[in-house]
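Backbone-to-sequence.
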């Protein structure tokens, strides 16, 4: 019978933990959570394998989108840094841990320090902490490695080998354009400067989706070199395989991510409480419900011809004045059909400076003809009045309507949305259809809402008492 002494056991334990981060997590869990049994899900293997790929240098930039409550913070911000310092023999690694709120970053700092200083860890990987640098927000070891906690907005000073962003936005940030823009500015301008070695240092961002305009939205909309591990609560179909060969193992739509902790009855209960937008973002890692939120664009019927009979027409406009970037100038041609239905028959959409924008409006109105009313927004104040007068003069011969925008854009869009959602709106087939439907699907959380604004303006104008031309 094989008998092990303490040194034999320690050697086996060290090797077991060194081989896989997942092995280390199972062993370390009771050190930090002695009263809570460890509940394993396959998603932890997926997260661990991608973190291991950072350790071995296969991945330098990683974005993880995953629902809350799935142990993402413990895995990425507590166990993984400790695994590198101990089992992987990398105590010189330097970590910056940031979150939207400093106390969350400090929470993970404290947990990692507690794990490092535990009797279990010290017996296996004795690491001496620097006595004069051993605080909640910053601690060092005797091998020049350190860990710092900070809020996302204060990432100045030190440079790390690993920069960990755990939830760069709060849930409330999703409703604040200013907060989203500030986090994205820090992501673009500050984060790259916090790396110890720009070539080899790694950035890890782990978060739930909150908005198309959140940090994840910036990363996924541009080619920034990030590996993307996206794990929705309910399976929606296969995604792109990651560079280390990972593919979501689920096969059936609706299959749960972590049924051991979040069984079906719990998920359904929480979905009722959270509402469709929170479910889409926080659980499904999409910024809006798959079927749409305010709008359900799958109810739009695409037709090849305008139905017979008289039609009242109005082209609604949403104006911008930026060349090649930013918001779009959009003109949406909306018609009221004789049978009570409506049709969106064409959309022009360009990022033009002022002079090109005005040329677009004039050319489009000319092509529409005098039977199509043109409705344009008017900015408040004297300058807005002057611009409105100029538009009316430029479009002489056309039926032109200008007005101030009143109320919230969601409120303005709801009359059109109510008709879309009962299948009462048609789309005339065209190359613009898919972009139009996708903007409706994401509204009001999408990157752009110009087509919604323009269509709603045209539609709302048609709701006024019918006067004038029928074709």
């Amino acid at each position: 019978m094989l008998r092990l002494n303490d040194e034999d056991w320690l050697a086996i334990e060290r090797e077991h933990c060194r081989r896989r981060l997942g092995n280390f997590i199972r062993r370390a869990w009771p050190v930090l959570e002695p009263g809570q049994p460890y509940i394993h899900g396959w998603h932890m293997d997926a997260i661990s394998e991608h973190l291991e790929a950072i350790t071995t240098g296969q991945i330098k930039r990683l974005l993880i989108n995953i629902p809350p409550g799935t142990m993402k913070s413990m895995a990425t911000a507590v166990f993984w840094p400790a695994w590198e310092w101990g089992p992987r023999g990398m105590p010189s690694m330097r970590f910056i841990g940031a979150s939207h709120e400093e106390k969350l970053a400090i929470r993970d700092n404290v947990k990692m320090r507690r794990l490092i200083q535990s009797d279990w860890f010290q017996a296996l990987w004795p690491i001496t902490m620097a006595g004069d640098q051993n605080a909640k927000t910053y601690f060092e070891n005797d091998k020049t490695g350190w860990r710092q906690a900070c809020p996302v907005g204060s990432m100045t000073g030190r440079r790390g080998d690993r920069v960990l962003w755990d939830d760069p936005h709060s849930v409330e940030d999703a409703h604040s354009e200013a907060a989203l823009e500030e986090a994205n500015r820090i992501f673009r301008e500050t984060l790259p400067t916090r790396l110890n070695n720009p070539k080899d240092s790694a950035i890890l961002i782990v978060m739930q989706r909150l908005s198309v305009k959140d940090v994840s939205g910036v990363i996924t909309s541009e080619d920034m070199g990030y590996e993307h591990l996206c794990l929705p609560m309910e399976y929606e179909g296969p995604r792109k395989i990651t560079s280390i060969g990972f593919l979501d193992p689920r096969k059936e739509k609706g299959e749960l991510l972590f049924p051991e902790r979040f069984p079906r009855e719990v998920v359904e209960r929480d979905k009722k409480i959270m509402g469709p937008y929170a479910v889409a973002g926080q659980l499904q890692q999409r910024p809006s419900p798959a079927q749409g939120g305010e709008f359900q664009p799958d109810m739009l019927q695409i037709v090849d011809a305008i139905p017979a009979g008289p039609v009242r027409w109005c082209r609604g406009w949403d104006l911008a004045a930026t060349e090649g970037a930013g918001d779009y100038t959009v003109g949406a041609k909306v018609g009221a059909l004789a049978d009570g239905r409506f049709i969106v028959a064409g959309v022009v959409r360009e990022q033009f400076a002022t002079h090109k924008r005005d040329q677009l409006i004039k050319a489009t109105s000319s092509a529409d003809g005098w039977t199509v009313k043109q409705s344009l927004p008017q900015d408040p104040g004297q300058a807005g009045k002057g611009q409105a007068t100029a538009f009316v003069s430029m479009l002489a011969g056309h039926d032109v309507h200008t007005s101030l925008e009143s109320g919230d854009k969601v409120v303005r869009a709801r009359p059109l949305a109510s008709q879309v959602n009962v299948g009462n709106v048609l789309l005339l087939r065209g190359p613009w259809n898919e972009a139009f439907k996708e903007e409706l699907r994401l509204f009001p959380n999408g990157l752009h809402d110009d087509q919604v604004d323009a269509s709603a303006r045209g539609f709302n104008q048609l709701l006024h008492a019918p006067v004038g031309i029928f074709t």
